[in-house]
């Protein structure tokens, strides 16, 4: 009993301390947050205890007083820090769990009065009214108010449109349930127009007159297609899309892909045998391609060809056990690539796709032609030069080194890092160590700034991998004044040293000291590992640790210093 009394006293003391902080003249947001969090934790604890022992005595009196208190704190905090959206959202989350629906409705109203410029908050409030309060009228009013503030916001129109379709669907289900129960529905107001989605249709018509473009139009059609009863509305939106946006690739793309979902003959049974399924997939894809073929004639643009080629690639990469279907897909894709190339309407990224596709099928000559055409058209593109070199390497061409040299002449030095890395990696497998090192040395001189960090790490890795520790140390020494570096550059050398049979403490100290010159003000782990090394290495000097600690405290800045102190204390506690 005594421990229970002590527990209650501790809770009262903690709550009083937190309450005192939010009554002070100078208020801090963190104090409010801490107080609220404490009260919420208390509520949840009480709830769990009640559930555990099945005890509901004075439930309203105890829980409601805490909820009322927290709401008061939230009201004060949201009045003082009106602009803090996260604070308002925390208030909303609390009310959703603990308050009444009427109280939450008021919180949404207060939040929207201040944050009327944020469409997402209007949508959140309207969805809650619709889904939790089951009030489509309140949701509708919120959407209408939101649109007065944001008359050109696509997301608001989309969600309002969805809400009206959901409302119509709900009414249809209600009517059906009444009819099934043979209840009189004549006295209930079920307008045939509303049941058919007329309110959603009005939103659709208004919104597309304000927000132009096929993308928005298609988004409304995608929402309408989620509702089976709205077939007439779907047809109207689809017809309007074709009439209003024939000059937009997205329209053609949508119309073509729609053929994949449509049965060959309305009312036909779905195919059951593997052969019938393959035949059906072939027919559907051919219908899609017929639309795309018409599209690229009507709208001969790079964007339209990109849609067509993306479709071809998607179908080609789709798994099938049918060799015939796979071959048809490959042939169709190759023909489409060729046509777009001949019309000079093939985007850069698709030259890459085309070349890689040819390479997959060991068509080296054709892949090289495509990659060559890509580098001629996009001479400043690192990606296209990489594709060309990928083909040359795969086909074991004698021209690889020459084309690398040519690429560096054509491209700006600041974008060449991927090519230098590719060259070094290729050379490692195909050339001598001297040749590879010559490439790394050239690269280090050519690549400047942040990009050079990656290169130096790769050079050091290569040296150790190809020739062992002695070579890696020589490379480290040659680069150790060539800033900038990564911490990894030094950590690699520390690791290489540790892998040696005669791991020298003097060398480890050298690497740590060199690393700390670069990163001593920000990297607490480096200092900590240095201390551990002096403690754990057979030739370490534990007496140095105090001096290293004070140097760290002088050099580390802000949070890094706090982190170091905490880690050091934990390490010491572990050694006690």
Task: Summarize the helices and strands and which ones pair or pack.
Layout: H1 2-23, H2 29-53, H3 59-80, H4 85-98, H5 101-114, H6 119-131, H7 136-149, H8 154-180, H9 192-195, H10 198-210, H11 214-224, H12 231-244, H13 249-261, H14 274-298, H15 302-317, H16 323-342, H17 348-360, H18 364-377, H19 382-394, H20 400-410, H21 417-430, H22 433-446, H23 451-467, H24 469-479, H25 487-498, H26 505-519, H27 524-536, H28 545-555, H29 558-575
Helix pairs in contact: 1-2, 2-3, 3-4, 4-5, 5-6, 6-7, 6-8, 7-8, 8-10, 8-11, 11-12, 13-14, 13-15, 14-15, 15-16, 17-18, 17-19, 18-19, 19-20, 19-21, 21-22, 21-23, 22-23, 23-24, 23-25, 25-26, 26-27, 27-28, 27-29
Task: Provide an overview of this structure.
With 576 residues, this protein is mainly alpha-helical. The protein is built from 29 helices and no strands. The protein has helices at residues 2-23, 29-53, 59-80, 85-98, 101-114, 119-131, 136-149, 154-180, 192-195, 198-210, 214-224, 231-244, 249-261, 274-298, 302-317, 323-342, 348-360, 364-377, 382-394, 400-410, 417-430, 433-446, 451-467, 469-479, 487-498, 505-519, 524-536, 545-555, 558-575. Helix 25 (487-498) packs antiparallel against helix 26. Mean pLDDT is 87; it is low at 1-14.
């Amino acid at each position: 009993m005594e421990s229970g009394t002590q527990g209650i006293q501790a809770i009262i003391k903690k709550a009083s301390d937190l309450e005192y902080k939010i009554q002070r003249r100078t208020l801090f947001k963190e104090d409010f947050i801490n107080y609220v969090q404490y009260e919420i934790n208390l509520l949840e604890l009480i709830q769990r205890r009640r559930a555990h022992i099945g005890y509901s005595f004075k439930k309203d009196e105890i829980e409601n007083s805490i909820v009322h208190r927290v709401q008061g704190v939230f009201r004060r905090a949201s009045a003082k820090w009106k602009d803090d959206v996260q604070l308002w959202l925390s208030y909303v989350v609390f009310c959703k769990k603990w308050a009444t629906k009427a109280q939450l409705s008021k919180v949404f109203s207060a939040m929207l009065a201040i944050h009327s410029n944020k469409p997402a908050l209007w949508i959140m409030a309207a969805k809650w009214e619709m889904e939790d309060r089951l009030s489509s009228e309140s949701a509708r009013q919120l959407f209408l108010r939101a649109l007065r503030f944001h008359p050109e916001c696509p997301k608001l129109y989309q969600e309002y449109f969805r809400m009206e379709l959901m409302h119509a669907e709900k009414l249809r289900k209600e009517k059906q349930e009444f009819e099934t129960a043979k209840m009189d529905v004549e006295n209930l107001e079920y307008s045939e127009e509303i049941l058919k989605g007329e309110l959603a249709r009005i939103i659709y018509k208004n919104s597309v007159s304000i927000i132009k473009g096929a993308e928005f139009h298609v988004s409304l059609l995608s929402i309408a297609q989620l509702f089976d009863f709205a077939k007439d509305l779907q047809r109207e939106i689809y017809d309007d899309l074709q009439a209003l946006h024939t000059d937009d690739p997205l329209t053609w793309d949508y119309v073509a892909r729609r053929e994949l979902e449509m049965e060959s003959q309305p009312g036909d049974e779905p195919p059951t045998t593997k052969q019938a399924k393959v035949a059906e997939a072939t027919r559907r894809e051919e219908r899609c391609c017929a639309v795309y073929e018409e599209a690229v004639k009507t709208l001969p643009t790079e964007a339209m060809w990109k849609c067509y080629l993306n479709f071809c690639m998607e179908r080609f990469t789709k798994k099938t056990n049918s060799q015939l279907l796979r071959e048809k897909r490959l042939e169709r894709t190759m023909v489409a690539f060729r046509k777009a190339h001949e019309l000079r309407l093939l985007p850069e990224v698709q030259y890459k796709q085309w070349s890689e596709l040819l390479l997959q099928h060991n068509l080296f000559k054709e892949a090289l032609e495509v990659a060559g055409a890509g580098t001629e058209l996009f001479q400043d593109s690192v990606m296209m030069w990489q594709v060309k070199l990928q083909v040359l390497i795969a086909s074991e061409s004698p021209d690889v080194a020459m084309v690398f040299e040519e690429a560096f002449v054509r491209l700006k030095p600041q974008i060449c890092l991927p090519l230098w890395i590719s060259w070094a990696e290729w050379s490692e497998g195909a050339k001598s160590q001297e040749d590879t090192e010559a490439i790394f040395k050239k690269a280090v001189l050519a690549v400047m700034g942040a990009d050079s960090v990656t290169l130096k790490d790769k050079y050091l890795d290569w040296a150790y991998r190809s020739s062992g520790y002695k070579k890696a140390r020589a490379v480290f020494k040659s680069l150790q004044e060539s800033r900038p570096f990564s911490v990894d550059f030094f950590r690699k050398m520390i690791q290489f040293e540790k892998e040696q049979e005669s791991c020298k403490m003097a060398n480890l100290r050298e690497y740590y000291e060199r690393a700390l010159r670069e990163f001593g003000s920000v990297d607490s782990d480096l200092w900590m590992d240095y201390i551990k090394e002096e403690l754990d290495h057979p030739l370490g000097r534990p007496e140095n640790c105090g001096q290293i600690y004070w140097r760290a405290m002088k050099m580390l800045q802000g949070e890094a210093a706090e982190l170091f102190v905490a880690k050091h204390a934990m390490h010491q506690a572990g050694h006690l």
